[in-house]
Amino acid sequence: MSAETYRDAWGIPHLRAATAGELARAQGRVTARDRAWQLEVERHRAQGTSASFLGPGALSWDRLARRARLADTARRCFAALEDKDPETAAWVREYTDGVNEGLAACDAPEFARTGLAPGRWEPWTPLAVWLATHILFAGFPAKLWREHITAHLGPDAVALFATDGPGTAGSNGWLVSGERTVTGHAIVAGDPHRFIEEPGVYQQIHLSCPEFDVVGLAVPGVPGIAHFGHTGTVAWAITNAMADYQDLYRERLRRTGAGVEALGPDGTWHRAARHTETIHVAGEDSVEVEVIETDRGPVIAGGPEGLDDGTPAALSLRYPPRVTADLGFGALLPLLRARRVADVDRALDAWAEPVNVVQAADTEGGLLHRVAGRVPVRATANRLRPVPAWEPGHEWTGWHTPPRAGLTDGIAVMANQRGPATPLGVEFAPPHRADRIAALLAGKERWSAADMPALHTDTHLASAGPLLDLVTALDGLSPGAAALRDRLLAWDRHMDADSAGAAAYAAVRGAVVRHLAAHPVLAPAAVPPAYPEVLQPWLALVPRIAYALEHLLRAEDPYGIDRAEAVRAALEEVAAEPPAGTWGDTHRLAPWRALPDTSGSPEPGLSGDHDCVLCTSAVPGLTDRAARGPAARYVWDL
């Protein structure tokens, strides 16, 4: 039986085949026809060849991909998969064969626009795409920020900024057991928050063969349905656990006649692997990149001569798939075959990265709330900052047992806050999204699937409290600022696109962030170390202040900053030049596109904000535009 494909009224592909292998080939073929350009972009990103058609703006990413050895790691992981799990390896091969068949017949206009032709996918390419998509997911560059702010304010300042920021992907997820639903069966719902891309990072799809029948959200370029799926009798979904599972090591490197050596924790210089690669850059000369790997891992910044500014530093990155040659693809087929939560649970024992909190439920009343993924056991210092490779005590000594959690009053909520993964992480999201979802769910005894969109789109902003508390206490304001203060205090604290009050609050908040960033205490931290451009978002002062504003306004030690005066100055500034419209006038979508948009169509205005359940993330003090937000929404009704 050949694969059958039809599309429903929404254009969602439904695929059916006689075997899992034939179905994987069909999935690859359909994905290539629907997302040919996206697959080409992702293949280049995974290989570190994006600059060859996107130009110098992509060069920093390509350097990281080459130096971190993403493609080589994917090759290693696939080779290990062939040895340990040949069924899954064959299934992945079928998928890539389907991708190549689909690309051969594609007519995506972007290829004509750029003069490119689709490249060939190798069996390891899906693993490289997965790795490239998630290598920055755990936010290891935050360790560089902690070191940077410690140098300026001391170690106690680290806690002020210990919150997820613009570089980290998050999600909302909630599980409502059958005792709290109108049907007596569980509901799993939520939304992943990622950088919004065109086309999107997820693809709705239905896969059916005699072994399984699954609907869900696939990652284009990766077979199966990994993150969000429903097999008819069991459904699962994930949120980012905010775990720390990647380490940065400071390396002492030296050149010798034979190559490069690194000083190890045993006090001995050890030979490091070294070679050079060439990155082609559209419109410019090619660039040569030196790739070095020590016993800790690939060197991603600096080298024997230090950083670009001459600072004597080199950083190596240690990440689980590079160490274990296992990317967790062995979980993908068992997830599709799952019939009960016990099956999902067993499948997730093979999960590697990213480290997630998983919620699942089945039609027999089974429930699951656990962490899935591989987190190394090592010294606490490793989790906080780059550690010296030449000192003993920073090695990995095993793997943490993934924690589990239960439900409270028939409900489990995970929105990247401190929860079951707390022992595994450092920086978590503030509790506002999770608390709001839990409060809304507590407001009614029985829930239905049709009720869930109201939770997905809730715009209440609890994190406005600290700033509004300071606004309340101000006196001696100009008439305009006093009127603005009264307007803010009357605002309902909902970040709705049509709200003028939300626009006024956002304007004051942004001005407060800028005033704090300009304060002599914090301003010196605006000059970041000379790390690669791709890591700079984690080192930028204004975004760091923006996302830590709540902490900074409530901290017991203000570091000599008169916060009330900063708020006063911001209020006067905005009163003198108030926003003319609503929140949606400036809070607009800013999607990432590989090629510039030539349509001329304005991007839509958005409701929500970073700490709302409707998590559309602007960067206060820098821009109201939102590059991150819900990349998909799901409601799984058992």
UniProtKB/TrEMBL annotation:
This is Penicillin acylase family protein. Pfam families: Penicil_amidase. Keywords: Hydrolase, Zymogen. InterPro entries: Ntn_hydrolases_N, Pen/GL7ACA/AHL_acylase, Penicillin_amidase_A-knob, Penicillin_amidase_dom1, Penicillin_amidase_N_B-knob, S45. It comes from Streptomyces vinaceusdrappus. Belongs to the peptidase S45 family. It comes from the Bacteria. The keyword Hydrolase applies. Gene3D superfamilies: 1.10.1400.10, 2.30.120.10, Glutamine Phosphoribosylpyrophosphate, subunit 1, domain 1, Penicillin Amidohydrolase, domain 1.
